[in-house]
Amino acid sequence: MSSNGPSDRNPTLRLLRLFLQPGIGIKRWLAVGIAGVLLVALGIAFAVSVSLTNTIVEVGRTLTFGGFLTGVQRGAIFGSIGFAISGLSAYMLYQRVVFGARYRRGGVIENLSSERVRRGGPRVVAIGGGTGLSSLLRGVKEYTGNITAVVTVADDGGSSGRLREELGIPPPGDARQCLIALSESEPLMEEMLSYRFESGASALDGHSLGNLLLAALAHTRGSFPEALRAAAELLAVRGQVMPSSTATDLKLAARTLSGRMLEGETAIGHAGEPIADLWLDPPDCAAYVGATRAIEVADVIVIGPGSLYTSVLPNFLVSGIREAFERSGALKVFVCNIATQHGETDGLSAGDHLRVFEQHARVSVSHVVLNSRIVPLAPEFQQEPLTSDGSIDGFDGVLVRADVVDVSFPSRHDSGKLAALINRLAHES
What's the pTM? Predict the structure, then answer.
């Protein structure tokens, strides 16, 4: 499911848009090339004594040491300069078209070729939230443009929680991270949209620029889904980002094994003991219709990675998401986290993660992805690697064990490795 417009479907218009995009350098070097051609033409005109206006003749003489040179010599100078400029222009245009400018991934030809491949890629729906989902999207966008990220709207902490309470909009934090991950100008967008104001007592203190942008768009466009659609156009996003629900007052609640009641993602994420039950308040919140449609027609549905209780499961507690998931004939892939999360999933094994998910979401998956490469974790994070000896009790689907860890951050997935695996599973199925 892609929100691409007519200009993205028409190769000619796509090519024109790439040529006219600011910062590529094509227009600049085209202008230089035209100047070079004009100088060559002027040199030929001097050499063959073509009748020229007095102004051009005087300028030419001034630039070539007055009247000391013959017309042929003067023409040779202009022609040589023109050929040199034209050659430089041709070389720089070649570099821009084939290899691209500094902040672009590849040139026009490579982008057009990649765009054609991505347009025919599998329809992938990724369900979750937080850094885990954005990491997955960052890799998947290289294989397909038919991506839908479905994010939780139960976040109650930080800037997102404050904006929800003050402005009455769904929390924008997880959606912002997904938009950044799917943006074609990802490094620059991440630097800009992740910027947080630190102004002491100011009302802006702690807010990220991206959250404020989505809040403004939600009010000007009339709804949070429309804000996400507008932001996707603004940021040149591959695919689309949708909330699992448009409810603005959604709260996550839980009961621990000891009977302690917890309210809000922040409290549940620091429960410090096993969660016995999980629910949403209000319990009858409806799913966003765009999200359910994307799930129903998907080729691959990826659950996670991400915080099990606070990022992944809240989406499946929304009325309508589970039903759409069950109706879908897609490949259903549960991506197990690399390690436990301190305060939320301490002591849980890989099999426990799957069991907890299926128990609370009340759905079954066809594939489970589990990291096979164990990298030592820093003891201060109080995390344990999740692994399996080759099977998970009670799971009769396909267990895929593969090296998907980010060795530079060994508690997280490598976006490139994970996306390549998901793409392979999609094509094999």
Answer: 0.74
